[in-house]
Design a protein that fits this description.
Keywords: Cytoplasm, Hydrolase, Protease, Serine protease. This is ATP-dependent Clp protease proteolytic subunit. Belongs to the peptidase S14 family. It is built from ten helices and nine strands. The protein is an alpha/beta fold and 271 residues long. The protein folds into two domains: 210 residues, 2-enoyl-CoA Hydratase, Chain A, domain 1 (Alpha-Beta Complex), CATH 3.90.226; 45 residues, no CATH class. Strands 1, 2, 3, 4, 5, 6, 7, 8 and 9 form a nine-stranded mixed beta sheet that branches. A hairpin with a 4-residue loop joins strand 1 and strand 2.
């Protein structure tokens, strides 16, 4: 087994089984926009993909908010072009352009409580009317290419996919499977909260549980000393501790212990 880490993500190659594994655990960005160590560019992704060599199967593990459309489309096309079987595993989240990357999988596996989100591409523009109209045409072209990627897996009509994208459709693993965006549903894993990144702020309908900590642990309760003392005293009254001859001074508890009624009560209770 070989393993190497680039600045953006990990890849692993299993020589014995001639398989590879790549993690996409961050935002999809263009070169020069890497704000976090986990950010991924199509250039770096290709380096790892090429480094895997002539493997029979590649596992692509995804937990990503998405990001730049063209970068994600490049990664999608790199995977589609590869001759290996592509097995996508959505470990927590495949949102926006990351959901398009997932469509490159021959197998798209999602735990029942994982999330996939599809929406319309967005962008900004500044300039005169002609320049703004050009930006709109560019967005429309991106939208149609994204619809084509989804349709290649789910088989839904363009109009149905377009409507889901317009509403910013969020799907659990089971829902994605039923709609054809996933090919298999696996057992639930712990929900993964969305990373705090600039991309998250562009979403409109993020499920509440994805904005909260992944593990919803109960807050620790404060220690009610009075209640404990009352319970100990009641126990001692019901079962009095027989007085014993006081031990030699060298064996007596220190003054702090001797003067602490809670300590003495707990000590007596343990006898």
């Amino acid at each position: 087994m070989t393993k190497r880490k680039f600045s953006c993500f990990n890849f692993r190659k299993d020589e014995a089984n001639n398989t590879g594994e790549i993690d996409i655990y961050g935002d999809i960005v263009a070169d020069g926009f890497q704000w976090f160590d986990s950010d991924i560019t199509s250039f770096d992704f290709k380096k790892d993909l090429d480094a895997l060599g002539d493997v029979d199967k590649i596992f692509v593990n995804i937990n990503s908010n998405g990001g730049f459309v063209y970068e994600g489309q490049a990664i999608y096309n790199q995977l589609k072009r590869h001759k290996a079987e592509i097995h996508v595993r959505i470990d927590g989240m495949a949102a926006s352009i990351a959901s398009v990357i997932a469509m490159a999988g021959d197998v798209i596996e999602m735990p029942a409580n994982a999330q996939m989100m599809i929406h319309e591409p967005a962008g900004g523009a500044f300039g005169n009317k002609s320049e703004l109209e050009s930006a709109i045409r560019s967005l429309e072209a991106s939208k149609q290419s994204i619809i084509a990627a989804y349709k290649s897996k789910c088989g839904l009509e363009d109009s149905a996919i377009e409507a889901m994208m317009a509403e910013e459709k969020w799907m659990t693993g089971q829902e994605a499977f039923e709609l054809g965006f996933a090919t298999a549903v696996s057992n639930p894993i712990q929900q993964v909260a969305l990373a705090k990144s600039p991309i998250t702020n562009t979403f409109r309908n993020v499920p509440k549980q994805l904005l909260e900590p992944a593990a919803d642990k109960a807050k620790p309760q404060s220690l009610d000393v009075d209640t404990i003392v009352e319970a100990v005293v009641a126990r001692l009254q019901a079962n009095p501790v027989e007085d014993k001859t006081e031990p030699p001074e060298s064996e007596q508890p220190n003054k702090q212990e001797k003067g602490n009624p809670l300590f003495n009560a707990l000590k007596a209770l343990s006898k």
